[in-house]
Structure formats: structure tokens, C-alpha cells
Amino acid sequence: MTRALSTHLFVNYRLTTALLDKIQKAGIPAVEIFCARQHLDYRNRAQITELAHWFRDSELRFHALHSPIYSDDAWGRSGPHAILNIAEPSKTRRIQTVDEIKRAIEIAESAPFRYLIQHLGLPEEEYDERKVEAAFSSLDELSVFARQRGVEILLENIPNGLSTADRLVTFFELTHLRLGVCFDVGHAHLGEGVEEAFRKLKDRIRSTHLHDNDGREDAHLMPFASTGGTVDWARTVSLLRSCGDELPLLLEVRESPEIRNPLEAVQQVFERLERF
């Protein structure tokens, strides 16, 4: 299985070619870029052009882009208008969200990537049939736009009433959308459990997010390196291996003051995971 890292680890800093160089030199062959405007400003052509030129000459593979969650550069603190939710029942706001995500997908025109990782709804959002219909309309349009640029949309299981494993299975059955899944281990651990969620989503899993927590808080802890995590990593890796070698072991963790050298810690995490 391929090692891969989400730049979520450095999301509070501007994404530069120097940072990508460090990731590559740490022995990580693939990257998922987290699309937050303080980190990667998908509206900034100069930043996109610089990264695109770097990827053309680099061996680091641009595996995936995480779809933006906010349109501002302050984690949505500029106001409710900055929240991007493809399940928004209001047609006007939903169209604005779809247009914003299209701007991010357009990165693939100069810096190709394989997958767009997309949330269905907001964290802790409750189930509502109107939201399901809104999400279908959004994804129906976005998936066509993405495919035209060589990108496949993957839905991520997140802690809400729309995106548990059961809800995603039902969503696929109702909409007949041919979308895959980014299997988030930490989020599954918060809900129905890793093994149960994996069993229900296995046939659609194309990528992963690996991070740890205590089963109550979505802490995005570094496996083994941070305290408080309770995911059974031996069993989890065994399950993921059953999907084949093409599935990446992709770490999506938060920066932590207790970890002074995060890329060194990432290398050690991969070494431990690969022993299972």
C-alpha cells in the first residue's frame, strides 16, 4: 500500500513548493492537498501556476484535492455566507457552493489530480430529505464537471446524519450516482465503528483518511505519536489491505505542539502501520 499524506497537517500555513519538497524528501510518494484558502488559495492563479510547474518536474504524485469547506481564509469565521455545503436546501446558496467548488476542481487543468474528496453536509448536520435532494443536484452537476477534467469525486464519511456508512449506502441507492468513497477511519471510529463502516462501504472505497481519536472527539490525532487514540490499527490495516495494494495509507492529522518534527513522526507512523 502506498504512503500518502494530507497537507491538512500544515493547513494553517501557505502551501509552498518548499513544503512539498520536504514532504517528498521524507519518503512520501503521494499527497492530498487540503483546499483551504489560507493554505491553498484556489482563486490565486499565481500560487496554482507555481504549484503546477513544480508538480510537472517532481516525482511526488498529486493524489487528491480535499474540496473546500469554507470560501474565506479564516475557517468560516467571516460569517455564515462562507460555509460551503452541497446539501444546502436553499437553491441560491447551493449554486454558490457548487460554483466555488468548481473553481477548486479547475486546478486539475494545470495540476492534474485523481480524486476530489467531498463532504456531504456539515459536521453533526441532521438528516433531512430536502438535503439529500440538494446534495444529489450538487453532485450530479459537479461529477460531470470533474470528469471533464479527469477527476473522480469521492464522498467522505463524516460525523453527521447524512454521511454515516448506512446513510451513504442509502444515498447511492437512491441517487444511482457512480461515486466512490474516501474511507475516513477516525470518523468511522466515532460512529458505527471502523469494521462495521468498512464492511458497508468496502466496494466503493478508493482512498483513505487515517487519524486517531478517543471515540468521542474528532481530534485527528497522529496514530501512535499522540496520546488518547483508541483505534485498533492492526485490525484496521488488515481491513484496508483487503482492498488491494492500490489503496493508499493516507494520513490526515492535525498539527500538534507535542510533536516537534511532524514529518519525522509521519515516517515513524508509516513504518509501524506497514508492520501489520
Distinctive features:
276 residues, alpha/beta, TIM Barrel, eight-stranded parallel sheet, 8 strands, 14% strand, globular
Written account of the structure:
The chain has 276 residues and is α/β, with parallel strands linked by helices. The protein has one domain: Divalent-metal-dependent TIM barrel enzymes (TIM Barrel), CATH 3.20.20.150. Helix content is 37%, strand content 14%. The protein contains 9 helices and 8 strands. An 8-stranded parallel β-sheet has the order 7-6-5-4-3-2-1-8. Helix 5 runs parallel beside helix 7 (194-201). The longest helix is centred in the middle third of the chain and has 19 residues, at 129-147. The mean pLDDT is 97.
Q: What's this entry about, in short?
A:
With 276 residues, the protein is α/β, with parallel strands linked by helices. The chain is 37% helix and 14% strand.
